[in-house]
User: What shape does this take?
Amino acid sequence: MKLSAQTVIGVDPGISGALVCIREGAVLACIDAPIESGAGNRNRLSAPVLTYHLQNLIKLYQPTGAALEAVSAMPGQGVSSMFSFGRSLGAVEGVLAALGIATTYYTPSAWKRRYGLLGRPKDASRTRALELFPDAAGWLTRKKDHGRADAILLAHLLLTAGKAA
Assistant: This one.
């Protein structure tokens, strides 16, 4: 199947993150980060389930690349939290690379600045994503859907790099 418009994936890594697949003007798929129980009943990202979802997105939509949030440790985060978050980021990077998906990284400050979200509450990303993709309302109904919104905005940034958002 040959798609006429460019299609990309956006990934907000982490336990409350998500992955999305968008094409200009439309969110095609939105999947919460697949989670499994790890050591000590701590949740972690499931790389096998992530792989499954990404393989399906590739088969259905043939994305040309992925946008991934380039996260790092934050002041005040505990060692265990930082390790868990780094593990999630590494799992996403590994799966994308193994599937041959070219990845573009955006720091939180860069993509949030682009969308006027610096210093704003997490929930503000839902509002901005809905402005760009009103048809995605069904995926962004809950306050905790900010991870989905972040992934949508990351993917949109990749699609519009060099254009005004």
Observations:
- The first helix runs from residue 47 to 61.
- The chain has a mean pLDDT of 86.
- The chain has one domain: 7-160.
- The radius of gyration is 15 Å.
